[in-house]
Amino acid sequence: AETWDSVPLAPPDSIFKLTAAYKEDTFPQKINLGVGAYRDDDNKPWVLPVVKKVTDMLLHDPALEHEYLPITGLPEFTAAAARLMFGADSPALAEGRVTSVQTISGTGANHLGALFLSKFYGWYEGKEVYLSDPTWVNHFAIFRNVGVEPRTYPYYDANTIGLAFSAFIETLQTAPPRSVFLLHACAHNPTGVDPTREQWSQIADVILAKGHYTFFDCAYQGFASGDLEGDAWAVREFVRRNVPMLVCQSFAKNAGLYGERVGALHVVAPSASAATRVKTQLSVLQRSEISNPPAHGARLMALILNNPELFEEWKRDIRTMAGRIIAMRQELHGLLTDKYKTPGNWDHIVNQIGMFSFTGIRAEQSQALTEKAHIYLTTNGRISMAGLNSHNIEYFAESLDKVVR
Ligand code: PMP
């Protein structure tokens, strides 16, 4: 037998498969709504002007060298990233209770957080994590890889195309004490459905009462609403209420730094000494996995976050992206309800938040969109709003109207 005879062929990643099919399609009006990256109104990737500017600054910096970063990352990046997440005036930061480590974007933060919990968290029974149903599919593999078994909690209600709030609360109440719950901090992927502030408070009540641990995944701060502060509200509220937690932070979407892999893991500890101990262990784990995080993206973000003028420019760029997405939501909603008088209620298109929208269409309808109209989307009916623009939105609305009639 040959060495790798027992290795089965793995299926291709479904999103990448979708993109490949889209690329091969020669139909001129084809649309790709699978992609999870921002596109401008001409369907082109967008380099944020502020990112262009700081890239230029770095290139012309005579002091630039290529030494290793510290194991836990560039300190001026991790400190600024923490202030962005928790607020510059956060008491937890002032008390030294937050430990922050630079990671390989949000994916790496999820991995390091999961690995840390797997090694050190005091589970009541087996090592399990509760994920929202549905969630970013990668969450399942990330936790399984470190020996933590994923379970799910009800999140999305297909009947209301909204939050399955009472079923969610019930799972929080019936899960074993000290369970780990992964919560999307804002702009839930894939549904675009977030709890209201009142609902977040009730979620925090039960989490505190049951002694659960919150694993926040925050991949869309600022990108969701255009407001960095507003999108961090749930995280900050949980910190204020002393919910035991960690936060995974990504700059892929809000800075358009997909390929730079710049992110951070923040563990909010009950005391400064606990935070220090946690940091030493995160450092040991990080050492064995990547030794040192990559420098370029962290330097770019450190420049932006630590310079008030550049920070303002970044906020403008974020509003450009979020504003275009929100405008597409409104236009699509208007086309379906006013122009085509498409059967059903489409208010969820404007009520959902972030890059993705769950349209609520069935699998066979989304398949029909692909087969008849050359519009590519995942079969769960999720569309990336970033794939819509002023040139293709009419065609999309018209095609959607046809398949739901
Ligand atoms: N978490 C969620 C919920 C996401 O949607 C994503 C991006 N698709 C990530 C984490 C991680 O992305 P990245 O590793 O590119 O930061």
From TrEMBL:
UniProt KW keywords: Aminotransferase, Pyridoxal phosphate, Transferase
Domain called Aminotransferase class I/classII large: residue spans: 29-400
EC number(s) on file: 2.6.1.1
Reaction catalyzed: L-aspartate + 2-oxoglutarate = oxaloacetate + L-glutamate
InterPro entries for this protein: Aminotransferase_I/II_large, Asp_trans, NHTrfase_class1_PyrdxlP-BS, PyrdxlP-dep_Trfase, PyrdxlP-dep_Trfase_major, PyrdxlP-dep_Trfase_small
One annotated Gene Ontology cellular component of this protein: cytosol
PROSITE patterns: AA_TRANSFER_CLASS_1 (PS00105)
A GO molecular-function annotation: L-aspartate:2-oxoglutarate aminotransferase activity
Top-level taxon: Eukaryota
Cofactor(s) recorded in Swiss-Prot or TrEMBL: pyridoxal 5'-phosphate
Gene3D superfamilies: Aspartate Aminotransferase, domain 1, Type I PLP-dependent aspartate aminotransferase-like (Major domain)
SUPFAM superfamilies xref list: PLP-dependent transferases
Keyword Heme attributed: no
GO biological process: aspartate biosynthetic process
Oligomeric and partner information: Homodimer.
Other facts: In eukaryotes there are cytoplasmic, mitochondrial and chloroplastic isozymes.
Family from the record: Belongs to the class-I pyridoxal-phosphate-dependent aminotransferase family.
Record protein name field: Aspartate aminotransferase
